Amino acid sequence: MRFISGKYKGRRIEGFDIVGTRPTMDRVKESLFAIINSYLKESLVLDLFAGTGSLGLEAISNGSKEAYFVDKNIISTKTIKKTVENTKIEEKINILNIDYKKALEKFKNENLKFDIIFLDPPYNDNLINDCLKKIKEYDLLKNGGIIVCEYEKENLIDIYPIYKEKKYGSKYIKIYKSSNS
Length: 181
What we know:
Radius of gyration: 15 Å
Largest sheet: 7 strands, mixed
CATH topology: Rossmann fold
CATH class: Alpha Beta
Mean pLDDT: 92
Distance between the termini: 39 Å
Helix content: 25-40%
Order of helices and strands: HEHEHEHEHEEE
Number of helices: 5
CATH architecture: 3-Layer(aba) Sandwich
Number of strands: 7
Shape: globular
Number of domains: 1
């Protein structure tokens, strides 16, 4: 697994074999980042169910200024740290080895608001709707910000306006965008 574009293009991303993770396929990631490219520059990113960190790291490679990686799996967070160290990533990286609910509450208490939030939880756990509700309730998405959801069978609630939807085999990508007002 590698960075597909940007500053770190071609460099290795560790962790394709972490048990319990399902890294986003390169062709899906490439298409996704073409869609969200205009949101990346100088953005604050949250990769909530980070796994290998592939999505947040790709955002950093393409101009995001800071990223938060959250995963409750210690192997995942150690793997992200290893990729960051091996790649010598200069941007601000924050890696949290905690449950997503605690992370969202922490961000609320710190008054953090994100430009881009990636939600790619384990497919069978059906966690995206809970995340969307908490993100809205805690006001964690900046005006004009986007939430990128990757899922398989979950029926998502449209708390935010839909910006784009795409299907890749059995997987779906739905991108929500908050209003600019």
